[in-house]
C-alpha cells in the first residue's frame, strides 16, 4: 500500500513539473521572441538564438532558407558543414552556432517547430568584408618626365563597397589641373590644390618636380581595418644649379665658404673644379667638400677654403651631372686687401709747477698696431673688429714740459714751446 501511494505521488509531481512532456502538451508551442538579424565580419563567429515556450514533445529544427538545406534537428546536426553546431537551455533557448563565417554562409536562416501546421521564424546573416585591393587593377610606383602626365588607379573590393580616397604622405596638397572653360584641351588650365581626392583614378597633368613623392590610396567601408597603398611618383628632369653669390671676396688668411644649390632627378653626381686646370677638388686639410640633402631632388653643395692664400684666388665651378644632362656654374673668388698697419704719434704731457689742471688739448697715446674696422663678412668670413681711439684729458704747464717723447716723435721740440704760451693765453681769456 505504501509503494502504490509513493508511485501515485511521483506521478502527480511529474505531471505538475512536466505536463507538456507527459500528455503531449496542454498548450501549443510558440515563439517567445523574434530572431535577431546578424552582421558579422568575414571569419568571425555567428550565433542565432530561437526562443520557444511550451515546446512539450515537439522538436526545433534549423534550415537555411535560401538553399532549403537542413542544418540541425533538435540536438542533432544534419549538415556536413563542420563549422555548424547547436545548443539549448531548458528547452526554451535554442542556439545555432556558425564558426568562422564565410561568404557562402550569408543568407536567411529559419527556426522551425514541427507543429501542424509548422511554425517558423527567420533571421538574416549578413557577412561584411573589410576592404582589400585588387593587385592586378592597382597601380604601383611610377616614373614620369617633368611636364608629363600620369594616371594612378586604385581598385578596392569589400562588403559593403569601399570608399577610395587619395592623399600625399608628406601632407602637401594634391594639384588637380582643370582646363578653363572654352579652352582647347591640354592648352590652358588652372591648378586646384586639394588635401584629399575622392575616386579610384587620380590623373595628374603637367606634373612638376614639386609633385614628386608618395601618394596614399586609402580604402575604407566601415569594417575595420581600413587599408592603404603607397605609390611613389618619381619625376625626372636634368640638373639645374642656382648660385646665391657668383662674386665672393675675402682677405688672405681667412676661411671662405662657396655654395651652390642643385636640383636634379635622378640624383646627380656633384663636384667642384678650379680653373684653369679644371682639377676636381676633394676634401683635404685646406678644402672641405660637403653635400647636404634638402629633399629627394635638392642638394646644397658647400666648399670651404681654409686660410685663403694667393694661389686660391680664381674661378671655381660647381658641376652636376645625371642621365638626362649636365650643368655647371662659376663663382669668382678674389682677394680683399687687408688694412694697413699705422703708428700714431705721442704728444707731450705738460704740468705746471703748481700742478694746476688746464683743459683744452688732447693726448694721442701710442696705439698698438691694430687695423681699422673693415666689414668683410662674405659667406662665412668674419671681418676685423673696429678700433676706437678715445680722446683723453691732459695737464699742461705754464712754464715747461715735464716729458717730451723722443725717437719716434715727428714733431719738433720747439713747436711745443710756441704752442704752450698760446694755450695759456686762451685759458686766461676764458677766465675773464
TrEMBL record:
Protein name per its UniProtKB record: Ig-like domain-containing protein
Subcellular location: Cell membrane
PANTHER family: CTX-RELATED TYPE I TRANSMEMBRANE PROTEIN (PTHR12231), DPR-INTERACTING PROTEIN ALPHA, ISOFORM A (PTHR12231:SF255)
Keywords recorded for this protein, A-Z: Cell membrane, Disulfide bond, Glycoprotein, Immunoglobulin domain, Membrane, Repeat, Signal
Pfam families named among the record's database cross-references: I-set, Ig_3
Record-level GO cellular component terms: neuron projection; plasma membrane
Signal peptide: 1-24
Domain Ig-like: residue ranges: 29-126, 131-228, 238-334
Ranges in coiled-coil conformation: none
Keyword Membrane (UniProt): yes
Organism in which the protein naturally occurs: Atta cephalotes (Leafcutter ant)
Amino acid at each position: 500500500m505504501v509503494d502504490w501511494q509513493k508511485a501515485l505521488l511521483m506521478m502527480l509531481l511529474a505531471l505538475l513539473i512536466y505536463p507538456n512532456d507527459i500528455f503531449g502538451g496542454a498548450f501549443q508551442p510558440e515563439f517567445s521572441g523574434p530572431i535577431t538579424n546578424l552582421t558579422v565580419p568575414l571569419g568571425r563567429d555567428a550565433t542565432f538564438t530561437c526562443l520557444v515556450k511550451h515546446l512539450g514533445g515537439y522538436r526545433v529544427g534549423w534550415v537555411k532558407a535560401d538553399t532549403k538545406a537542413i542544418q540541425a534537428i533538435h540536438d542533432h546536426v544534419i549538415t556536413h558543414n563542420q563549422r555548424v553546431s547547436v545548443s539549448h537551455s531548458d528547452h526554451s533557448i535554442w542556439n545555432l552556432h556558425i564558426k568562422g563565417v564565410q561568404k557562402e554562409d550569408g543568407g536567411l536562416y529559419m527556426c522551425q517547430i514541427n507543429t501542424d501546421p509548422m511554425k517558423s521564424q527567420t533571421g538574416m546573416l549578413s557577412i561584411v568584408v573589410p576592404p582589400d585591393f585588387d593587385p592586378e587593377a592597382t597601380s604601383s610606383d611610377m616614373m614620369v618626365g617633368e611636364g608629363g602626365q600620369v594616371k594612378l588607379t586604385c581598385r578596392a573590393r569589400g562588403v559593403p563597397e569601399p570608399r577610395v580616397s587619395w592623399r600625399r604622405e608628406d601632407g602637401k596638397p594634391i594639384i588637380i589641373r582643370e582646363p578653363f572653360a572654352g579652352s582647347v584641351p591640354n592648352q590652358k588650365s588652372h591648378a586646384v590644390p586639394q588635401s584629399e581626392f575622392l575616386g579610384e583614378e587620380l590623373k595628374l597633368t603637367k606634373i612638376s618636380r614639386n609633385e614628386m613623392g608618395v601618394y596614399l590610396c586609402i580604402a575604407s567601408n566601415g569594417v575595420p581595418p581600413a587599408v592603404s597603398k603607397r605609390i611613389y611618383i618619381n619625376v625626372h628632369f636634368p640638373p639645374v644649379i642656382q648660385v646665391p653669390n657668383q662674386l665672393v671676396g675675402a682677405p688672405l688668411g681667412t676661411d671662405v665658404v662657396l655654395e651652390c644649390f642643385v636640383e636634379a632627378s635622378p640624383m646627380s653626381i656633384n663636384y667642384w673644379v678650379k680653373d684653369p686646370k679644371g682639377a676636381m677638388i676633394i676634401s683635404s686639410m685646406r678644402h672641405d667638400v660637403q653635400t647636404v640633402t634638402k629633399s629627394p631632388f635638392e642638394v646644397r653643395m658647400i666648399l670651404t677654403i681654409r686660410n685663403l692664400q694667393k694661389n686660391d684666388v680664381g674661378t671655381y665651378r660647381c658641376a652636376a651631372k645625371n642621365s638626362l644632362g649636365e650643368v655647371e656654374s662659376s663663382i669668382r673668388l678674389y682677394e680683399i686687401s687687408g688694412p694697413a698697419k699705422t703708428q700714431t704719434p705721442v704728444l707731450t704731457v705738460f704740468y705746471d709747477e703748481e700742478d694746476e689742471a688746464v683743459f683744452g688739448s688732447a693726448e694721442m697715446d701710442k696705439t698698438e698696431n691694430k687695423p681699422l674696422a673693415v666689414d668683410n663678412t662674405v659667406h662665412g668670413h668674419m671681418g676685423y673688429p673696429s678700433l676706437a681711439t678715445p680722446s683723453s684729458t691732459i695737464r699742461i704747464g705754464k712754464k715747461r714740459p715735464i716729458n717730451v717723447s723722443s725717437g719716434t716723435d715727428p714733431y719738433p721740440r720747439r713747436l711745443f714751446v710756441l704752442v704752450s704760451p698760446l694755450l695759456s693765453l686762451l685759458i686766461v681769456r676764458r677766465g675773464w
